[in-house]
Design brief:
Largest sheet: 6 strands, antiparallel
Shape: elongated
CATH superfamily of the largest domain: PPM-type phosphatase domain
CATH architecture of the largest domain: 4-Layer Sandwich
Distance between the termini: 52 Å
CATH topology of the largest domain: Phosphatase 2c, domain 1
Number of strands: 16
Number of helices: 6
Structural class: alpha+beta
Length: 331
C-alpha cells in the first residue's frame, strides 16, 4: 500500500516483515524496506531484525500494560482523595491535607463530610489517622471510609458506630492495623451550630470562640482496631456565629521544625495560632494552620497532615448551600 513506502524512497526491491511479540498478543510488525538496486536481506540481517523486533515488542507491550495500570491506579486514587468541602446545610466546612511525601497524593490521614440523609438528620464529619504511611495506609483509609459511609444511619449513636467499626477492622485478619479518629455530628439551632464530638484515641478537637479563646472539647476514647472492647466519651458543643471547631491529626502538633529542625510544633503553638482566628471563615482557619505548619516544617520530613474546620457562619445561614460537594467521594 502507498502508506507503507516513505515519500521519495523509490522502487522497493526487498522487504522484511517481522512480528513484534507482545504479552499473548502481537504488538504489531517491524517492516524493513530496501531499494531495488540493493540485494535482498540476508540471513544475518533477518536475525538482527528479529532480535530488534523482540525487544521493541516487549517494550511496547510493557508500555501499553503500564498505561492501563496507571489508568486503573489513577481511577482508584481519585476515590481516595479527600473531598472538596464548602457549605452543608448552613454550616461551613473546610479541609486541608498534606501527605508525608510531597510527591504522594494520599496517605494515612483522611477526612470526610456526609450530608444529612433519610436515615440521618445531622451532617456527619469524620477526621482520622491510620497507622503507617503511603499507599499501604491509604488502602486501610479507604476501607475505613467505606465502612463509615455504610454506618451513617447509626450516626445518632457515636459509641455504637465506633464499636461496629472496631469490630470490622479486627475481623479483617492479617497484620494488626489501628486508627484514631474523631466523629462530629452537626446541625443548625437557629444561627448557631450544635455539635456532638467523639474522639477515639485522637487529639480532642479545639473550639475557637469569637473572642479568640481556645478550648479543648471534653471527649476521649479508645483507638480503633486493637482491643475487642472500646470506650468513648461524647462532648456537646455549641458554636455561635463566627466560632469554629478544628479537628486535626497529630501530624500538625508533631511536625518538627524550628532553628535546628528538631522542635515539635506542639499543641500550645497551635492554640496560639488559633487564638488569632476568632470570627474567621472555616477556609481561612484551615489556610492559617496549614501556612504556619508548612513554614515550621520548611524542607524537613513530616508525617501526614490533615485538618478539618467546622464553622457557624457569621451571617447566619449562607445562601450557597451545597450538599453535593460536601459528601464523601468514597462509596
Amino acid at each position: 500500500p502507498a502508506w507503507l513506502v516513505p515519500e521519495g524512497f523509490g522502487p522497493v526491491g526487498a522487504m522484511a516483515v517481522t512480528p513484534l511479540p507482545g504479552h499473548g498478543l502481537s504488538a504489531g510488525a517491524l517492516i524493513l524496506l530496501r531499494r531495488a538496486r540493493h540485494a535482498a536481506f540476508d540471513a544475518s540481517e533477518a536475525e538482527f531484525a528479529g532480535l530488534f523486533a523482540a525487544r521493541a515488542g516487549a517494550a511496547m507491550s510493557a508500555a501499553r500494560l503500564y498505561a492501563e495500570q496507571n489508568q486503573v491506579a489513577d481511577t482508584l486514587m481519585r476515590a481516595l482523595l479527600p473531598p472538596t468541602l464548602r457549605h452543608v446545610e448552613g454550616t461551613e466546612f473546610a479541609g486541608g491535607y498534606r501527605a508525608s511525601v510531597d510527591t504522594d497524593r494520599v496517605g494515612g490521614d483522611f477526612y470526610d463530610v456526609h450530608p444529612p440523609g433519610e436515615d440521618c438528620a445531622e451532617t456527619l464529619a469524620v477526621l482520622g489517622d491510620v497507622a503507617g504511611k503511603g499507599l499501604d495506609a491509604a488502602v486501610i483509609t479507604g476501607r475505613i471510609r467505606s465502612t463509615l459511609h455504610a454506618l451513617r444511619p447509626m450516626a445518632d449513636d457515636h459509641g455504637r458506630m465506633l464499636r461496629l467499626l472496631n469490630n470490622a477492622m479486627r475481623s479483617e485478619g492479617g497484620r494488626v492495623r489501628f486508627a484514631t479518629l474523631v466523629l462530629a455530628s452537626a446541625h443548625r439551632e437557629g444561627s448557631a451550630v450544635a455539635l456532638r464530638l467523639t474522639s477515639a484515641g485522637h487529639p480532642p478537637p479545639l473550639i475557637v470562640r469569637r473572642d479568640g479563646t481556645v478550648e479543648e472539647a471534653d471527649t476521649g476514647g479508645t483507638l480503633i482496631g486493637v482491643l475487642p472492647e472500646i470506650t468513648s466519651r461524647t462532648a456537646h458543643v455549641r458554636l455561635a456565629p463566627g466560632e469554629t471547631c478544628l479537628l486535626y491529626t497529630d501530624g500538625v502538633t508533631e511536625a518538627k521544625g524550628g532553628p535546628l529542625g528538631d522542635v515539635q510544633f506542639g499543641e500550645e503553638r497551635l492554640k496560639r495560632a488559633l487564638a488569632e482566628c476568632g470570627g474567621l471563615p472555616a477556609a481561612a482557619v484551615v489556610e492559617r494552620v496549614q501556612m504556619l505548619t508548612d513554614a515550621w516544617i520548611g524542607g524537613g520530613r513530616h508525617d501526614d497532615i490533615a485538618v478539618l474546620a467546622i464553622t457557624a457562619p457569621r451571617g447566619g445561614v449562607p445562601g450557597d448551600v451545597d450538599t453535593a460537594t460536601g459528601g464523601s467521594r468514597t462509596a
